[in-house]
Design a protein that fits this description.
Layout (H helix, E strand, L loop, with lengths): L1 H15 L14 E6 L3 H17 L5 E5 L9 E4 L8 H5 L1 H4 L6 E5 L3 E3 L4 H8 L4 E5 L15 H11 L7 E9 L2 H16 L5 H10 L4 E3 L10 E3 L16
Parallel strand pairs: 1-2, 1-4, 2-3, 6-8
Antiparallel strand pairs: 4-7, 5-9, 6-7
Helix pairs in contact: 6-8, 7-8
């Protein structure tokens, strides 16, 4: 009780002096969204995705990374050479494409469709988290654990964690907080991706083992559900494999 009285006395003294004892609200962090668009299927899908995102988050800056400007209303274009069929490299270099002042980034695959305000992900980042993501539907207790990556990559993950019981994340929807730790993580992710078969989920797990992040998990509604739909594989070019689910 004495401590509370003392706090009140200080508050009154500050008020008499014209000084507010209430801490100012933190300034909102600069933020934006980014997606990767290569090929006609991705362009068609991105038009739908961007229109939906603009509907639910009007005013949010959106950057399109690709080899050619798809001229999607409400976006800015950043050129990146078409270097791999799955366009993973452009995704893993997204920090080179977004403005340096963006402290928070929402990455979305072109074949997703936001059906709600995506701000909760940003709010969680502001609470001290590095990443917001959703688990893949293909986990170690099922037959499709990392089925789409090469056998050496699956073995590398199993060897690194000494088991298969490691939560696999679906990387088609991510909220990211800029930090040196995050930049280091993307560098490691890219390094493991170069060693693999062109997919990014196994490489992501190996990178997280090297550079741990504080990750908040969203449920399926946010990636393949009623909050963010995910038409898995619909934006991929014919030369790449088709993924039936996350």
């Amino acid at each position: 009780m004495a401590g509370m009285a003392h706090a009140g006395q200080n508050s009154n003294r500050y008020s008499r002096a014209g000084i507010s004892s209430v801490a100012p609200a933190p300034s909102p962090m600069a933020k934006g969204a980014v997606t990767v668009v290569y090929g006609e299927q991705a362009i068609s899908a991105a038009h739908v995705a961007v229109a939906a995102l603009c509907q639910h988050n009007p005013g949010l800056p959106i950057i399109i990374i690709g080899a050619h400007d798809p001229s999607i209303p409400g976006t800015e274009f950043r050129h990146a050479p078409d270097r791999d069929p799955g366009a993973r490299l452009a995704k893993l270099r997204l920090w080179d494409a977004v403005p340096a002042e963006w402290e928070q980034v929402f990455y979305f695959d072109a074949d997703t469709i936001p059906r709600a305000d995506i701000s909760p992900g940003f709010e969680i980042l502001s609470g001290g988290w590095d990443m917001v993501a959703a688990p893949s539907s293909n986990q170690a207790d099922g037959p499709n654990w990392l089925w789409h990556v090469s056998l050496p990559e699956r073995q590398a993950v199993e060897d690194r964690f000494r088991c298969r019981a490691i939560l696999v994340l679906q990387a088609g929807i991510l909220w990211l907080q800029r930090s040196q730790q995050m930049i280091d993580f993307f560098d490691r992710w890219q390094s493991y991706w170069h060693q693999g078969s062109g997919q990014d989920q196994a490489a992501m797990l190996l990178a997280l083992a090297d550079v741990p992040l504080r990750i908040w998990l969203f449920g399926r509604p946010w990636n393949g559900g009623h909050l963010i739909a995910h038409r898995f594989g619909s934006a991929r070019r014919q030369s790449t494999w088709a993924l039936p689910g996350g």
